[in-house]
Specification:
CATH class: Alpha Beta
Strand content: 15-25%
Number of helices: 3
Order of helices and strands: HHEEEHEE
Shape: globular
Largest sheet: 3 strands, mixed
Oligomer: single chain
Helix content: 40-55%
CATH architecture: 2-Layer Sandwich
Number of strands: 5
CATH topology: Histidine-containing Protein, Chain: A
Length: 91
Amino acid sequence: MSQAPTFQVPPDVTALDPASGRRAICVQAEAELKRSSFRSLHAVSCEYEDGVLRLRGRLPSFFLKQLAQTLVARQLNGTARIDNRVEVKAG
């Protein structure tokens, strides 16, 4: 079984160029969500600042909210904290 790729952005990138490092982490996190077969996860957006990756958006279930967090956390490999601000709204 192949292992999911991890983020290729070393932690010091944000120190050298904060804007590029934040952007790269968000782009990779959102790409991971877009690879999901659950299409509703494709609309979740990310912001990264001060070691915290914040997830935002609206999903129809708590299961999908947790899945979004799990997919992104697996990629971060402990290099950032996740603040899951996704709202759950059915319908």
